[in-house]
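Example record

One chain of 87 residues, shown exactly as stored in the release files.
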Amino acid sequence: MKFGQGYANELRWRQPQRGDKWHLDEVLLKLKGKHHYLWRAVNQNGHVLDVLMLSRRNRQAAKRFFRKLLKGLGYAPRVLITDKLKS
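Predicted structure tokens for this chain:
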């Protein structure tokens, strides 16, 4: 009780600033002869927000990544920048 709020404030201060512009990217990897897709989100400050590796590249995979990303961070971006791929 004595140091709880001070400790929480210190942790909040150390977190990287949240950006409202996200860059989304996907990369094709080959692991043990099988193709996997690495989905990644980075904010404008260069901090990695979330990473997800899946064996599929479809609408369900994209929805799963966004659901995980938005649930974990608790805020929505102002701008999303993609690599202009179909996915």
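Notes: The beta strands are 21-31, 34-43, 48-54, 79-81.
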